[in-house]
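Hi team,

Below is the intake form for Pyridine nucleotide-disulphide oxidoreductase dimerisation region from Streptomyces globisporus. Please confirm the fields before the structure is written into the shared record.

FORM ID: S-0412
PROTEIN: Pyridine nucleotide-disulphide oxidoreductase dimerisation region
ORGANISM: Streptomyces globisporus
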Amino acid sequence: MAAERLVVIGGDAAGMSAASQARRLKGPGALEIVAFERGHFTSYSACGIPYWVGGDVEARDDLIARTPEEHRERDIDLRMRTEVTELDVAGQRVKALDRESGKTYWTGFDKLVIATGARPVRPALPGMDAAGVHGVQTLDDGQALLDSLDALRSEGPRRAVVVGAGYIGVEMAEAMLKRGFEVTVLNRGEQPMATLDADMGRLVHEALDGLGITTVNGAAVTKILTGPDGRVTEVATDAGTYPADVVVLGIGVEPETGLARAAGLPVGPHGGLLTDLAMRVVGHDNIWAGGDCVEVLDLVAGRTRHVALGTHANKHGQVIGSNIGGGYGTFPGVVGTAVSKVCDLEIARTGLREKDARAVGLRYVTATIESTQRAGYYPGAKPMTVKMIAELRTGRLLGVQIVGREGSAKRVDVAAVALTAGMTVEQMTALDLGYAPPFSPVWDPVLVAARKTVAAVRGAGS
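The structure came back. Fields below:
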């Protein structure tokens, strides 16, 4: 009897984690694994690209966890530079295009994993395809950006315009600043970091200004202007025009689900594939999906959302590979935790923003406190702001946002655990957190915020 064949579409975190876990549980004689990757690299950290571009990470290969050769040594038939262009669900086969030779062919499957990732949002505006305009989703994208920077003249002004002020945008703004560019961030929203409430985003704006990064809010890009050589020269917005030698798109990403949509597989309101707790595509017993191409359950809001993070993608792959390999695993959902930094400014959030709470019909109170990340008398103590959101009647924690200096961002993990456990802010005030002056004031800022939020809940109730 021939071994079952597993086909994996996508050679990064979710896809290759699934393939590797399935191989660990099932030997070569029991399961044949064929994986397709359209790019040049596998199993790499896309989250590390801004730090490679900015020079904090010295070499591209430092971001690669496992090479194609290493996967093949584990008896995975990994086919690089090969793009799956069609999915025949009924016939249980995929059509692949070898990008080097131009050859196309069909490959059958017994089980299928879709891990096609996400693509940078690239508005359909004039000039968006001009030379010098770059997205930064893959290692290929990062290499193209570095090649473009190397081609710029070394003398005279070096001006970078970053379009978008979310996580990708602010991280790329830092990277371009470190490379000696004058940096302008164009943000169509009220404040940078729309993943935060506007009052916390204002703190990020002030910090960007302090670093010498110009942030323009309420600026929607209308077109990219180019010179005679076809290279970008300016970015036009409804708020003005800004000179640019290079443009980096940090508008965000959207699920890469065109292949799945064409095959009739179910997608959610945010464009991601819908799966059950085992990461199996809804309605299809032999198809799984994971990573940036799926929607996941928000445990706080009770709705699906699209969250493109490598942490989730690797967990999805482990769950999928376990289930395919004869084991058992589930992915229950997320609370929406994310951290980032711009130079020495740290930014973190978990759970719901105010508008998220309103959107799902929750009434809430908020509290914001200012503290320091260490004891105030200890050398290196720096400001830290914590905003907490709790349900009006019950006091259940709904969300936390943190903006501060070194040692601030990872405090959000305490809140993420509290959210996952369904804790109230009053319960949080009794948490036994670690204390020593180099690490925290005697009352940790998260606990100070919880105490103030408890008072807000009680005040609203009375």
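SUMMARY LINE: The chain has three domains: 4-119+254-324, 122-251, 345-461.

Thanks, M.
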